[in-house]
């Protein structure tokens, strides 16, 4: 591995990057910088975001620019205002000791008159978003006739945002003999087209595997019902107390809804989407950068250009429509040598899309179990204990209150005091999770057991004393009855009681669920006086499991079930066998219209 001194960088640049804390070159810098300083022609560099690409092209570009020549010598195109400003700031830092290098950032959402005045004074390097640059070219303010180097940063992002025509128009304005550098996380067909059209035998550099995600990012997914997505997101946030990440949604509406729910539920979260004004957007991004927000809920377009190196998680609330977008999302964590986690909330209809993403990133995603209430409470408890251990107690203002505090709490022993402190701190978590209201992950329809769908079974039940009694209820999936509705039905009819539930088995027209035995009679009495969707509820102790056919009705079901299908008896509901005399090993008798031993159908 070579160091920065061996690359041929000038003393002024070396001094600047030393002050910035640069020690050893990152892989993309190690490969790109010597090529740019050696004038080896066009370059395609495929690398994830956060791998040091700005320094890779910025350091040699600053060194190669002639500050005595007042013409524009280099053009950098990037997809967003935020990235434009970031690159401009970085180049300014690199050029701190190299003379009067003039860099102009041009982007939408800012005064075009101010940008025009800056360009007319003469600039050496323009950093621009395509749309605003097209406008400035049309006004005659941006002159590109002396440009010798063009850099397309995050080229795939620009194409995803629909800038292909603008890029083509801009590149037609630049002299033919220029050097072109293209930086991208993925190598799509559109990128290949640009390379063939505008680049001359480019050197191709790949950091990692082409079209793959960062190596230090782990990928997992939760298989969930669509209606449970928000609940699972909450559980992820609760199970990861130190989470600092971006939650990606597909639409602006979904983004705002999810962010609003999180804020209403007490989480440090906010939304970032296209309906925000630039001032609102800047305020949200600043809060996120300084960690006043733990979760930023964003659309893909809004999050582009957000440069944060220490994200712990990227959460795909919705999988992207374009599978390559996943690479950009996951690349926002695990940056600058740190590890990161990319999680996706996936329902059964999205399994194919997930498989396509796995092919692109060339990694198998791990299916994860939705955290149970018990696991979450435990994780939060020990997180709080760790904070309690490390809290600073040197506040002298507290000392004067200690005698009175000791007097009031002196009657409590140590164990009772701990219980009360923990209960006070964890009231929200205990209320949400203490009763084992765990979320069920759907599985393939073939995963059935004993006639009951495993997909609707609950996770590990909470540890309560006593045995569990299995109850029958005359509501099922066709009634819109799922675990959430059962929990709500129990809670609304047992005011003031904390009824521990166990496993739930949902079928089409009826269901079974477990309750701690000491609550069974009470719950039967409470629910038999209830209604659900204008239907009277019937609950009773279920008969013992037998070898009855899967989906058969329990023999001790309430009498009112007899009029569920008054026109038919249960045995008549089974479809007739098409071949009653067919049995294993017995051939179907041929009809009189066909010849024995010959096929009675023509091949299609």
Secondary-structure blueprint:
Layout: H1 11-19, H2 27-37, E1 43-46, H3 53-64, E2 74-77, H4 81-94, E3 103-106, H5 112-120, E4 125-128, H6 130-138, E5 149-152, H7 155-160, H8 164-173, E6 179-184, H9 189-198, E7 203-206, E8 217-223, H10 229-239, E9 245-248, H11 252-264, E10 269-272, H12 278-289, E11 295-298, H13 300-303, E12 313-316, H14 323-330, E13 340-346, H15 351-361, E14 366-367, H16 373-390, H17 396-399, H18 402-409, H19 414-425, H20 427-433, E15 448-449, E16 452-453, E17 468-473, H21 483-492, E18 501-506, E19 511-516, H22 517-527, E20 531-532, E21 535-536, E22 539-541
Parallel strand pairs: 1-6, 1-7, 2-4, 2-5, 3-4, 5-6, 8-13, 8-14, 9-11, 9-12, 10-11, 12-13
Antiparallel strand pairs: 15-16, 17-19, 17-22, 18-19, 20-21
Helix pairs in contact: 2-3, 3-4, 6-8, 14-15, 16-20
What features would you describe in this structure?
Strands 3-4-2-5-6-1-7 form a seven-stranded parallel beta sheet, sandwiched between helices. Strands 10-11-9-12-13-8-14 form a seven-stranded parallel beta sheet, with helices on both faces. The chain contains 22 helices and 22 strands. The longest helix has 18 residues, at 373-390. The chain is elongated and about 90 Å long. Mean pLDDT is 80; it is low at 444-466 and 546-604. With 604 residues, it is α/β, with parallel strands linked by helices. It has four domains: 4-206, P-loop containing nucleotide triphosphate hydrolases (Rossmann fold, 3-Layer(aba) Sandwich), CATH 3.40.50.300; 217-371, Rossmann fold (3-Layer(aba) Sandwich); 378-433, no CATH class; 448-568, RRM (RNA recognition motif) domain (Alpha-Beta Plaits, 2-Layer Sandwich), CATH 3.30.70.330.
């Amino acid at each position: 591995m070579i160091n920065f001194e061996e690359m041929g960088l000038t003393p002024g640049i070396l001094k600047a990057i030393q002050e910035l804390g640069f020690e050893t070159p990152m892989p993309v810098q190690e490969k790109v910088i010597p090529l740019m300083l050696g004038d080896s022609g066009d370059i395609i560099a495929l690398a994830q975001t956060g791998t040091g690409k700005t320094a890779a092209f910025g350091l040699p570009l600053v060194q190669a620019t002639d500050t005595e020549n007042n013409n524009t010598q280099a053009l950098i195109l990037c997809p967003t205002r935020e990235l434009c400003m970031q690159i401009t700031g970085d180049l300014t830092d690199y050029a701190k000791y190299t003379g009067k290098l003039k860099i102009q950032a041009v982007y939408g959402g800012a005064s075009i008159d101010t940008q025009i005045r800056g360009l007319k004074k003469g600039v050496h390097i323009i950093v621009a978003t395509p749309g605003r640059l097209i406008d400035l070219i049309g006004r005659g303010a941006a002159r590109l006739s002396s440009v010798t180097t063009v850099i397309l940063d995050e080229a795939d992002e620009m194409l995803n945002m629909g800038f292909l025509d603008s890029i083509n128009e801009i590149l037609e304005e630049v002299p033919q003999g220029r050097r072109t550098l293209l930086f991208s996380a993925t190598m799509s067909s559109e990128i290949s087209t640009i390379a063939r059209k505008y680049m001359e035998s480019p050197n191709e550099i790949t950091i990692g595997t082409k079209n793959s995600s960062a190596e230090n990012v782990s990928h997992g997914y939760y298989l969930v019902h669509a209606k449970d997505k928000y609940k699972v997101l909450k559980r992820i946030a609760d199970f990861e107390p130190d989470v600092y990440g971006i939650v990606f949604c597909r639409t602006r509406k979904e983004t705002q809804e999810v962010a609003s729910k999180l804020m209403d539920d007490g989480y440090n979260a906010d939304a970032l989407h296209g309906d925000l004004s630039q001032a609102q957007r800047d305020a949200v991004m600043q809060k996120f950068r300084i960690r006043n927000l733990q979760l930023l809920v964003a659309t893909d377009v809004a999050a582009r250009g957000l440069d944060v190196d220490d994200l712990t998680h990227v959460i795909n609330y919705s999988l992207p429509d374009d599978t390559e977008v996943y690479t950009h999302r996951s690349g926002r964590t695990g940056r600058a040598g740190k590890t990161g986690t990319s999680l996706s909330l996936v329902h059964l209809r999205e399994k194919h899309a997930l498989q396509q993403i796995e092919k692109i990133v060339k990694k198998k995603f791990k299916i994860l179990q939705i955290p149970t209430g018990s696991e979450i409470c435990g994780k939060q408890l020990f997180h709080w204990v760790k904070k309690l251990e490390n809290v600073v107690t040197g506040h002298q203002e507290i000392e004067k209150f200690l005698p009175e505090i000791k007097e009031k709490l002196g009657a409590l022993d140590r164990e009772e005091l701990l219980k009360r402190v923990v209960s006070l701190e964890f009231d929200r978590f205990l209320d949400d999770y203490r009763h084992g209201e765990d979320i069920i992950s759907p599985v393939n329809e073939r995963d059935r057991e004993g006639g009951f769908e495993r997909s609707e079974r609950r996770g590990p039940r909470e540890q309560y004393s006593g045995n569990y009694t299995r109850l029958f209820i005359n509501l099922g999936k066709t009634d819109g009855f799922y675990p959430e509705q059962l929990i709500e039905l129990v809670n609304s009819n047992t005011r003031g009681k904390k009824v521990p539930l166990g496993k739930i088995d949902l079928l089409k027209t009826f269901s079974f669920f477990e309750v701690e035995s000491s609550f069974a009679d009470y719950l039967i009495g409470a629910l038999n006086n209830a209604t659900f969707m204008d239907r009277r509820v019937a609950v009773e102790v279920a008969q013992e499991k037998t070898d009855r056919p899967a989906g058969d009705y329990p023999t001790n079901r309430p009498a009112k079930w007899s009029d569920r299908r008054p026109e038919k008896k249960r045995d008549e509901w089974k479809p007739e066998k098409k071949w009653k005399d067919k049995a294993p090993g017995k051939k179907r008798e041929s009809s009189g219209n066909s010849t024995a031993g010959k096929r009675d159908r023509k091949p299609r």
